[in-house]
Protein backbone atom coordinates (compact mmCIF):
# COMPACT_ATOMS: atom_id res chain seq x y z
CA UNK A 1 0.00 0.00 0.00
CA UNK A 2 1.29 3.48 -0.84
CA UNK A 3 1.80 6.14 1.83
CA UNK A 4 -1.23 7.99 0.38
CA UNK A 5 -3.29 4.80 0.53
CA UNK A 6 -2.33 4.15 4.15
CA UNK A 7 -3.23 7.71 5.10
CA UNK A 8 -6.58 7.43 3.28
CA UNK A 9 -7.41 4.16 5.06
CA UNK A 10 -6.53 5.72 8.41
CA UNK A 11 -8.75 8.72 7.58
CA UNK A 12 -11.68 6.47 6.71
CA UNK A 13 -11.19 4.45 9.91
CA UNK A 14 -11.15 7.71 11.86
CA UNK A 15 -14.46 8.76 10.29
CA UNK A 16 -15.96 5.42 11.30
CA UNK A 17 -14.57 5.82 14.81
CA UNK A 18 -16.09 9.31 15.18
CA UNK A 19 -19.43 8.12 13.75
CA UNK A 20 -19.82 5.65 16.62
CA UNK A 21 -19.92 8.50 19.11
CA UNK A 22 -22.49 10.63 17.29
CA UNK A 23 -25.89 10.66 19.07
CA UNK A 24 -28.38 8.45 17.28
CA UNK A 25 -31.92 9.65 16.64
CA UNK A 26 -34.60 7.52 18.28
CA UNK A 27 -38.33 7.90 18.84
CA UNK A 28 -37.42 9.67 22.10
CA UNK A 29 -35.65 12.45 20.18
CA UNK A 30 -38.94 14.18 19.36
CA UNK A 31 -38.11 17.71 20.49
CA UNK A 32 -41.08 20.02 20.07
CA UNK A 33 -40.98 23.05 17.74
CA UNK A 34 -41.43 26.17 19.86
CA UNK A 35 -44.65 27.43 18.17
CA UNK A 36 -46.31 24.05 18.82
CA UNK A 37 -45.12 23.96 22.43
CA UNK A 38 -46.39 27.49 23.09
CA UNK A 39 -49.79 26.63 21.58
CA UNK A 40 -50.09 23.54 23.79
CA UNK A 41 -48.93 25.40 26.90
CA UNK A 42 -51.34 28.30 26.35
CA UNK A 43 -54.24 25.89 25.85
CA UNK A 44 -53.44 23.87 28.98
CA UNK A 45 -52.99 26.97 31.16
CA UNK A 46 -56.31 28.41 29.96
CA UNK A 47 -58.25 25.12 30.05
CA UNK A 48 -57.19 24.08 33.56
CA UNK A 49 -56.81 27.50 35.20
CA UNK A 50 -53.05 27.23 35.70
CA UNK A 51 -52.37 30.97 35.53
CA UNK A 52 -49.75 32.02 38.09
CA UNK A 53 -48.31 28.53 38.52
CA UNK A 54 -44.72 27.97 37.45
CA UNK A 55 -44.37 25.93 34.26
CA UNK A 56 -41.29 23.69 34.13
CA UNK A 57 -39.68 21.58 31.39
CA UNK A 58 -37.47 18.84 32.86
CA UNK A 59 -37.12 16.92 29.60
CA UNK A 60 -34.15 18.19 27.62
CA UNK A 61 -31.04 16.59 26.07
CA UNK A 62 -28.97 15.16 28.89
CA UNK A 63 -31.57 16.02 31.51
CA UNK A 64 -32.77 13.74 34.31
CA UNK A 65 -36.38 14.30 35.33
CA UNK A 66 -35.93 12.21 38.50
CA UNK A 67 -33.29 14.56 39.92
CA UNK A 68 -34.91 17.75 38.60
CA UNK A 69 -35.73 20.35 41.28
CA UNK A 70 -39.53 20.77 41.10
CA UNK A 71 -40.68 24.02 42.76
CA UNK A 72 -43.75 23.82 44.99
CA UNK A 73 -46.96 24.09 43.00
CA UNK A 74 -45.21 23.83 39.65
CA UNK A 75 -46.71 22.19 36.56
CA UNK A 76 -44.81 20.09 34.04
CA UNK A 77 -45.88 20.87 30.48
CA UNK A 78 -43.39 19.07 28.29
CA UNK A 79 -42.68 16.36 25.75
CA UNK A 80 -41.16 13.38 27.61
CA UNK A 81 -39.41 10.33 26.15
CA UNK A 82 -42.33 8.25 24.88
CA UNK A 83 -40.65 4.95 25.76
CA UNK A 84 -40.89 5.64 29.52
CA UNK A 85 -43.99 7.83 29.70
CA UNK A 86 -45.91 5.34 31.86
CA UNK A 87 -43.16 5.41 34.50
CA UNK A 88 -42.98 9.20 34.35
CA UNK A 89 -46.72 9.54 34.97
CA UNK A 90 -46.58 7.05 37.87
CA UNK A 91 -43.73 9.03 39.42
CA UNK A 92 -45.49 12.38 39.05
CA UNK A 93 -48.70 11.05 40.60
CA UNK A 94 -46.77 9.63 43.56
CA UNK A 95 -44.74 12.85 43.95
CA UNK A 96 -47.81 15.09 43.71
CA UNK A 97 -46.48 16.95 40.64
CA UNK A 98 -49.11 18.28 38.23
CA UNK A 99 -48.47 17.50 34.57
CA UNK A 100 -49.71 17.90 30.99
CA UNK A 101 -47.53 15.68 28.80
CA UNK A 102 -47.27 14.96 25.09
CA UNK A 103 -47.96 11.28 24.32
CA UNK A 104 -48.48 9.09 21.25
CA UNK A 105 -52.15 8.90 20.27
CA UNK A 106 -52.57 5.24 19.39
CA UNK A 107 -51.01 3.94 22.62
CA UNK A 108 -52.44 6.70 24.81
CA UNK A 109 -54.65 4.38 26.88
CA UNK A 110 -51.62 2.22 27.71
CA UNK A 111 -50.64 4.88 30.25
CA UNK A 112 -53.02 4.50 33.20
CA UNK A 113 -51.82 7.19 35.63
CA UNK A 114 -53.57 10.23 34.26
CA UNK A 115 -56.47 11.49 32.15
CA UNK A 116 -56.41 11.17 28.37
CA UNK A 117 -56.78 14.20 26.08
CA UNK A 118 -57.10 12.90 22.54
CA UNK A 119 -56.48 15.17 19.56
CA UNK A 120 -56.34 14.51 15.85
CA UNK A 121 -52.93 16.17 15.68
CA UNK A 122 -49.97 14.95 13.65
CA UNK A 123 -46.97 16.93 14.90
CA UNK A 124 -43.79 17.27 12.89
CA UNK A 125 -41.06 17.34 15.53
CA UNK A 126 -37.66 19.03 15.31
CA UNK A 127 -35.95 15.83 14.16
CA UNK A 128 -38.41 15.45 11.27
CA UNK A 129 -40.43 12.66 12.88
CA UNK A 130 -44.18 12.89 12.24
CA UNK A 131 -46.09 11.50 15.21
CA UNK A 132 -49.85 11.34 15.88
CA UNK A 133 -49.84 13.10 19.22
CA UNK A 134 -52.27 13.42 22.11
CA UNK A 135 -51.76 14.17 25.81
CA UNK A 136 -51.79 12.71 29.33
CA UNK A 137 -52.63 14.98 32.25
CA UNK A 138 -53.23 15.00 35.97
CA UNK A 139 -55.83 17.75 35.53
CA UNK A 140 -59.55 17.64 34.84
CA UNK A 141 -62.29 15.28 35.94
CA UNK A 142 -62.70 13.32 32.69
CA UNK A 143 -60.74 10.10 32.26
CA UNK A 144 -60.90 10.57 28.49
CA UNK A 145 -61.94 13.47 26.27
CA UNK A 146 -61.44 15.11 22.91
CA UNK A 147 -59.97 18.60 22.56
CA UNK A 148 -60.89 20.12 19.16
CA UNK A 149 -59.69 23.59 20.15
CA UNK A 150 -56.27 22.20 21.10
CA UNK A 151 -56.04 20.31 17.81
CA UNK A 152 -56.89 23.54 15.95
CA UNK A 153 -54.24 25.45 17.89
CA UNK A 154 -51.59 22.85 17.04
CA UNK A 155 -52.57 22.88 13.38
CA UNK A 156 -52.35 26.67 13.19
CA UNK A 157 -48.94 26.59 14.89
CA UNK A 158 -47.68 24.28 12.13
CA UNK A 159 -49.32 25.99 9.15
CA UNK A 160 -46.20 27.92 8.12
CA UNK A 161 -44.21 24.67 7.77
CA UNK A 162 -46.95 22.63 6.16
CA UNK A 163 -46.72 21.85 2.43
CA UNK A 164 -49.77 22.90 0.41
CA UNK A 165 -52.49 20.26 0.44
CA UNK A 166 -53.15 18.39 -2.78
CA UNK A 167 -56.49 19.38 -4.32
CA UNK A 168 -59.39 16.95 -3.98
CA UNK A 169 -61.99 16.80 -6.72
CA UNK A 170 -65.51 15.41 -6.56
CA UNK A 171 -66.72 14.34 -9.98
CA UNK A 172 -70.34 13.82 -11.08
CA UNK A 173 -71.73 10.28 -11.08
CA UNK A 174 -71.87 10.36 -14.89
CA UNK A 175 -68.07 10.48 -15.06
CA UNK A 176 -66.44 7.07 -14.74
CA UNK A 177 -62.74 7.11 -13.83
CA UNK A 178 -60.13 4.39 -13.55
CA UNK A 179 -60.06 5.07 -9.81
CA UNK A 180 -63.79 4.19 -9.61
CA UNK A 181 -63.16 0.90 -11.36
CA UNK A 182 -60.16 0.17 -9.14
CA UNK A 183 -62.29 0.55 -6.00
CA UNK A 184 -64.93 -1.84 -7.34
CA UNK A 185 -62.37 -4.34 -8.61
CA UNK A 186 -60.64 -4.50 -5.21
CA UNK A 187 -64.02 -5.23 -3.61
CA UNK A 188 -64.61 -8.13 -6.02
CA UNK A 189 -67.45 -6.33 -7.81
CA UNK A 190 -67.99 -7.16 -11.50
CA UNK A 191 -69.00 -3.81 -13.01
CA UNK A 192 -69.38 -3.19 -16.74
CA UNK A 193 -70.50 -0.41 -19.06
CA UNK A 194 -71.22 -1.09 -22.71
CA UNK A 195 -70.80 2.47 -23.97
CA UNK A 196 -69.26 5.82 -23.00
CA UNK A 197 -67.64 8.95 -24.34
CA UNK A 198 -63.95 9.61 -23.66
CA UNK A 199 -63.35 12.98 -22.00
CA UNK A 200 -60.17 14.56 -20.65
CA UNK A 201 -61.66 17.73 -19.17
CA UNK A 202 -65.12 18.79 -17.98
CA UNK A 203 -66.49 22.13 -19.11
CA UNK A 204 -66.58 23.25 -15.46
CA UNK A 205 -62.81 22.64 -15.21
CA UNK A 206 -61.77 24.69 -18.22
CA UNK A 207 -61.91 28.17 -16.59
CA UNK A 208 -59.70 26.80 -13.78
CA UNK A 209 -57.18 25.24 -16.13
CA UNK A 210 -57.83 21.80 -14.59
CA UNK A 211 -58.15 18.42 -16.29
CA UNK A 212 -59.27 14.90 -15.38
CA UNK A 213 -56.14 13.02 -14.37
CA UNK A 214 -55.96 9.97 -16.61
CA UNK A 215 -59.13 11.05 -18.45
CA UNK A 216 -62.52 9.37 -17.99
CA UNK A 217 -65.74 8.21 -19.60
CA UNK A 218 -69.07 10.01 -19.70
CA UNK A 219 -71.70 7.34 -18.99
CA UNK A 220 -75.49 7.22 -19.11
CA UNK A 221 -77.76 8.09 -16.18
CA UNK A 222 -78.64 4.40 -15.79
CA UNK A 223 -74.96 3.39 -15.61
CA UNK A 224 -74.22 6.34 -13.31
CA UNK A 225 -76.90 5.19 -10.85
CA UNK A 226 -75.48 1.66 -10.88
CA UNK A 227 -71.95 3.05 -10.43
CA UNK A 228 -73.01 5.05 -7.38
CA UNK A 229 -74.65 2.02 -5.77
CA UNK A 230 -71.70 -0.27 -6.49
CA UNK A 231 -69.19 2.22 -5.11
CA UNK A 232 -71.15 2.34 -1.84
CA UNK A 233 -71.15 -1.45 -1.78
CA UNK A 234 -67.40 -1.46 -2.46
CA UNK A 235 -66.82 0.88 0.47
CA UNK A 236 -68.82 -1.39 2.80
CA UNK A 237 -66.92 -4.44 1.59
CA UNK A 238 -63.60 -2.67 2.12
CA UNK A 239 -64.59 -1.72 5.68
CA UNK A 240 -65.67 -5.31 6.42
CA UNK A 241 -62.47 -6.73 4.97
CA UNK A 242 -60.25 -4.40 6.99
CA UNK A 243 -62.14 -4.82 10.26
CA UNK A 244 -62.52 -7.49 12.92
CA UNK A 245 -65.66 -7.30 15.05
CA UNK A 246 -65.45 -8.15 18.75
CA UNK A 247 -68.45 -8.64 21.03
CA UNK A 248 -68.66 -7.81 24.74
CA UNK A 249 -68.58 -10.77 27.11
CA UNK A 250 -71.16 -11.35 29.84
CA UNK A 251 -68.56 -10.26 32.42
CA UNK A 252 -67.92 -6.99 30.58
CA UNK A 253 -71.68 -6.33 30.31
CA UNK A 254 -71.90 -6.75 34.10
CA UNK A 255 -69.10 -4.23 34.57
CA UNK A 256 -70.91 -1.74 32.32
CA UNK A 257 -74.14 -2.18 34.27
CA UNK A 258 -72.17 -1.48 37.44
CA UNK A 259 -70.85 1.75 35.89
CA UNK A 260 -74.40 2.81 35.01
CA UNK A 261 -75.49 2.25 38.62
CA UNK A 262 -72.59 4.37 39.86
CA UNK A 263 -73.44 7.20 37.47
Describe this structure in words.
The chain is built from 7 helices and 9 strands, in the order ααββαββββαβαββαα. By secondary structure, the chain is of the alpha/beta class. The chain has 2 domains: 128 residues, Rossmann fold; 98 residues, no CATH class. The strands form 2 sheets. Strands 1-2-3-5-4-6 form a 6-stranded mixed sheet, sandwiched between helices. A hairpin with a 5-residue loop joins β4 and β5. The radius of gyration is 28 Å and the shape is elongated. The relative contact order is 0.10.
Task: Break the fold down into its secondary structure elements and pairings.
Layout: H1 3-19, H2 34-48, E1 55-56, E2 75-78, H3 85-95, E3 98-104, E4 115-124, E5 130-137, E6 144-146, H4 148-158, E7 175-176, H5 178-186, E8 197-199, E9 216-218, H6 221-241, H7 250-262
Parallel strand pairs: 1-2, 2-3, 4-6
Antiparallel strand pairs: 3-5, 4-5, 7-9, 8-9
Helix pairs in contact: 2-4, 5-6
Give the tags.
263 residues; alpha/beta; Rossmann fold; 2 domains; six-stranded mixed beta sheet; 7 helices; 9 strands; elongated
What can be said about the biggest beta sheet? 6 strands, mixed
The tally of strands reads 9
**Major sheet: order of its strands?**
1-2-3-5-4-6
Number of self-contained structural domains: 2
Instruction: Give the structural class.
Output: alpha/beta
Mean pLDDT: 87
Number of helices: 7
Helix content: 25-40%
The CATH class of the largest domain is Alpha Beta
N-to-C order of helices and strands: HHEEHEEEEHEHEEHH
Which CATH architecture of the largest domain is right? Answer: 3-Layer(aba) Sandwich
What is the terminal-to-terminal distance? Answer: 83 Å
From the 3D structure, determine the CATH topology of the largest domain: Rossmann fold
* Rg (CA only): 28 Å
Q: Poorly predicted ranges (pLDDT <50, ≥5 residues)?
A: 18-28
| Beta-strand percent range | 15-25%
